[in-house]
Amino acid sequence: MTHMMTILGIETSCDETSAAIIQDDKVLSNIISSQSVHLQFGGVVPELASRAHLKKIIPIYQEALDTAGVSQHQLDGIAVTCGPGLVGALLVGVNFVKGLSLATGIPFVGVNHIEGHVYSNFLEAPHPRFPFLCLIVSGGHTQLVVIKEHLTYRLIGKTRDDAVGEAYDKVAKLLGLPYPGGPEVDKLAQRGNPSLVKFPIGLEKSKTFDFSYSGLKTAVLNFVQQLSEEERKAHLADICAAFQQAAITALVSKTLRAAKTYQLTDIAVAGGVAANSLLRKMLTEEAQNQHCRVFFPSIQYCTDNAAMIARAGLERLKAGYSSNFSLNAYPSIQLGEEIQ
Ligand SMILES: Nc1ncnc2c1ncn2[C@@H]1O[C@H](COP(=O)(O)OP(=O)(O)OP(=O)(O)O)[C@@H](O)[C@H]1O
Ligand SMILES: [Mg+2]
């Protein structure tokens, strides 16, 4: 029997302080502390995020060990998000892990946050088989990637402007909904009538696998501005539903066309917007007609968490990667880009 690998994951790229322990692909603990300090500002304030991480990182780490029933000396490796994200937020996690490694001698590896999102699909069975197509949809990214084997990524399409999660958050804001708006818009959309208005589907006729969300956001803004206050209130759920219909249709149609073009039968979805109810329903249903299998992480692993970072780090450590004490924070690193 081969030795099980016990990995600690640390995630501090934005406004979630998270620590997780996994044993091979089994999650033993996944502690997430969401910073509430940003609520009053309607968005993440970078300095406040760094300070909140600094305050929380050690207690969250200890809670992750306690919940898992694992002690520090049992760890075989540490995975830490080193980018992309807010530089000051990333530095807290990276520096914590360097200190922990210095004190214990445990090897560590820097992980790309987006690679972590991809690996959220490998935390539970069944998971996709290689080669597969991955639709990455989050607050900062909207990409289609062909994944032939572990840790290899071929980008075939991306957004030319806003990310889809960003569009959800901006539409929520202009409708006066609280931040982060994605889940709020989704909730309202489920009881709205999407046929109130037809919003444009970004790059609908384009032969590429690129996305565009800025036109859709502007169309929602223009529509809302010509309504009276009462009309706006009465149709809030309908506006959300119409926006959601356009936003998700773009994702589903491009993803299925890409799967056909690249002859891939397994499709995985990753990132915060993978939690969206319409995306989960529409992609699953329409993929069946094309005999594709679709994989969504369970909701708890869609948005930022350290279990996904630990899982990606496990794969990196197994492949022989490790970082040294010169590891830095890389705020705009791309998926697949080499980490020093
Ligand atoms: N049910 C939902 N429907 C639509 N959007 C959602 C839903 N749940 C979360 N989101 C969106 O997902 C995004 C957060 O996802 P995530 O935490 O992966 O992004 P991020 O870490 O900020 O960005 P990135 O991963 O690109 O660095 C937000 O934009 C949020 O509004
Ligand atoms: Mg994220």
Could you characterize what this model shows?
With 340 residues, this protein is α/β, with parallel strands linked by helices. The protein has two domains: 6-118 and 302-318, 2-Layer Sandwich (Nucleotidyltransferase, domain 5), CATH 3.30.420.40; 128-296, 2-Layer Sandwich (Nucleotidyltransferase, domain 5), CATH 3.30.420.40. Helices cover 41% and strands 18% of the residues. It is built from ten helices and ten strands. It has helices at 46-68, 87-104, 113-119, 164-174, 181-189, 214-225, 229-234, 236-261, 277-289, 306-318, and strands spanning 6-11, 16-23, 26-34, 77-83, 108-112, 132-137, 142-147, 154-158, 266-270, 293-295. The strands form two sheets. A five-stranded mixed sheet has the order 3-2-1-4-5, sandwiched between helices. A hairpin with a 4-residue loop joins strand 1 and strand 2. The structure holds adenosine-5'-triphosphate (ATP) and magnesium ion. Magnesium ion binds at residues 113, 117, 138, 272, 304.
Helices and strands, with pairings:
Elements: E1 6-11, E2 16-23, E3 26-34, H1 46-68, E4 77-83, H2 87-104, E5 108-112, H3 113-119, E6 132-137, E7 142-147, E8 154-158, H4 164-174, H5 181-189, H6 214-225, H7 229-234, H8 236-261, E9 266-270, H9 277-289, E10 293-295, H10 306-318
Parallel strand pairs: 1-4, 4-5, 6-9, 9-10
Antiparallel strand pairs: 1-2, 2-3, 6-7, 7-8
The structure holds adenosine-5'-triphosphate and magnesium ion.
Please summarize what this structure is.
The protein is of the alpha/beta class. Helices cover 41% and strands 18% of the residues. The chain has 2 domains: 6-118 and 302-318, Nucleotidyltransferase, domain 5, CATH 3.30.420.40; 128-296, Nucleotidyltransferase, domain 5 (2-Layer Sandwich), CATH 3.30.420.40.
